[in-house]
Amino acid sequence: MMKIDHHQLLFVPLVLLMIAANFFKVQAQQGPISEAATLRQVASSLQMFVDELPQMPKVFGFSMRHRSPVPAHLTIGMFQKKWKFHRDLPPATVFAYGKSKKTATVPGPTIETLQGVPTYVTWQNHLPQRHILPWDPTVPTAIPNNGGVPAVVHLHGGVHEPQSDGSAFAWFTSNFNETGPAWSKPTYTYPNVQHSGNLWYHDHALGLTRANLLAGLIGAYVIRDPKLDAKLNLPSGPEFDRHLFVFDRSFATDGSLYMNHTGNNPSIHPQWQPEYYGDAIVVNGKAWPFLKVQRRKYRFRIINASNARYFRFSLSNRLAFVQVGSDSSYLPSPVRTQNIFLSPSEIADVVIDFSISTTNEAILTNDAPYPYPIGSPVDDLCGNIMKFVIEPGSPSQPDRSKIPATLVKYQPARTAGAAKRRYIVMHEYSSNAGTPTHLYINGKRLEDPATETPKSGTTEVWEVINLTPDNHPLHLHLAMFQAVKVQELVNLDAFKACMTTKNDAVACNVKAHATGKLVKIPENERTWKNAVKIEPGYKTTIVVKFNLVETGAPYPFDATAQPGFVYHCHILDHEDNAMIRPLMLVK
Ligand SMILES: *[C@@H]1O[C@H](CO)[C@@H](O)[C@H](O)[C@H]1NC(C)=O
Ligand SMILES: *[C@@H]1O[C@H](CO)[C@@H](O)[C@H](O)[C@H]1NC(C)=O
Ligand SMILES: *[C@@H]1O[C@H](CO)[C@@H](O)[C@H](O)[C@H]1NC(C)=O
Ligand SMILES: [Cu+2]
């Protein structure tokens, strides 16, 4: 029989007591550990590069009949479930898209479609009675009478009718128990008439976009053109053509997703904060994952799905990215670069050739300050994204993919012959304490009547003037656009003062102010895009096409129907409060 030493029995609790006493002494000296420090501790306790990069499940927006593709009808639900963001984090409660609760993922399934073959999706809301994250009833918000989480899906970059656009006012709760004023039908039509490329779907409910995306309601959508794919011969197939869905999140000690419950101006907005920044970087639903790659070319479609963080990516072993596309369009020819710079919601379509790597691993890093461009430098946590583990030896199959010398030429972006020139001015408002309270475009609310009413089928020039201190990614629904000129505003304070009283860029003589230095538009952004970064203190001239960018043909559906479209800043915290305006096309 084992003899129990009574001294030992006493010893253990005594040591625990001493540790506890010491702990409380430290606490008393330093005060309670701040919430921010706790969140950082959780993130920094996670070992990087231990989870394998997941591939999200694929669902097909077409089916084959007698060897020809025919439209498919998909049903995709939103579910509350548990999701493990890291090997060492307890599972978090998330909202996830999927065909069933069991198969739902964060991000949701990748929807694969074919150009010219419509896809029908019935989006179903199975979310619970209460939100898992805080939200703010004082910003314009969908508030159902009987509880539930309002949700509605927007296909970002999609060219489709207004009734299928996911208007912020077309939200619905579980079982369609309650619907917003613009709700008209449960099944959306995506005609896939546009050029092939990278899109993504995400929630767009009024005032809840930041919280619903943070909770996990995002997913990728691809339109493929098999003829073009065969001609370009870029790396292809599920193993070599992949999505990297990148976002930042903070986690509490119990593994749950963290969002601040207290606003920066709580007497005005009890919860709203101007920008969400997380301490951990998550790719395809895992914090700092790794991916084993062969020594060959890979295509990565990198989607920035952060609420507010900009990314400037590079590879630790100095391998170059060859960028072939931006947002939903190809570039005219590939652009070789060491850095890829992405604002929220922007997409970079890149090829990395690991066959020429001199190392056996490469870390994808980020060095964009936050907020961009005037904020703090990125720390060692958000400075790392993921790791590529490059396998030694030759690839399992010879790499027959290519990076062609030229890619795709769409219609050129011309200011000449534009049907209309508009001025779009970004404003930020502050409390007496000098902290942001809200942001508006053209000094107007979303609820104010539409002032941007372009004629469907035409091309317009928009002069976008940023009077705030931050860079804002401008996003238009339906229309593709590209920046053609970026010029600094001189005597900015005088111009701002005039705009504050007159709110009219022409009356405030914007021409006389937009005479400062010109900024060169990076080569990898010179294509049709659905988000463009707008520099603070600059006027950015964009050409906006309210027609198909491949041919200039008018939309093959009625783009002028109710409830219309919107355009907004894609920093989600700004969009919700309320850097968003209607975009109502007319005949
Ligand atoms: C919606 O209605 C169904 C059936 O009446 C009910 O079971 C469910 O709890 C309701 N959900 C919400 C969010 O109101
Ligand atoms: C949450 O917001 C409040 C108010 O702005 C701030 O004092 C606090 O530090 C924030 N918490 C974190 C973890 O950032
Ligand atoms: C990523 O997307 C978010 C939200 O759309 C945006 O605020 C942020 O600036 C983007 N970051 C990059 C690097 O694109
Ligand atoms: Cu913004």
From TrEMBL:
It is a peripheral membrane protein. It is found in: Endoplasmic reticulum membrane. GO terms for biological process: cellular response to phosphate starvation. Residues 1-28 form the signal peptide. Its cofactor is Cu cation. SUPFAM superfamilies: Cupredoxins (SSF49503). Pfam families: Cu-oxidase, Cu-oxidase_2, Cu-oxidase_3. The keyword Glycoprotein applies. Transmembrane segments: none annotated. GO terms for molecular function: copper ion binding; oxidoreductase activity. Keywords: Copper, Endoplasmic reticulum, Glycoprotein, Membrane, Metal-binding, Oxidoreductase, Signal. It comes from the Eukaryota. GO terms for cellular component: endoplasmic reticulum membrane. Residues 141-227, 278-355, 437-583 form the Plastocyanin-like domain. Belongs to the multicopper oxidase family. This is Multicopper oxidase LPR1-like. The lineage of its organism: Eukaryota, Viridiplantae, Streptophyta, Embryophyta, Tracheophyta.
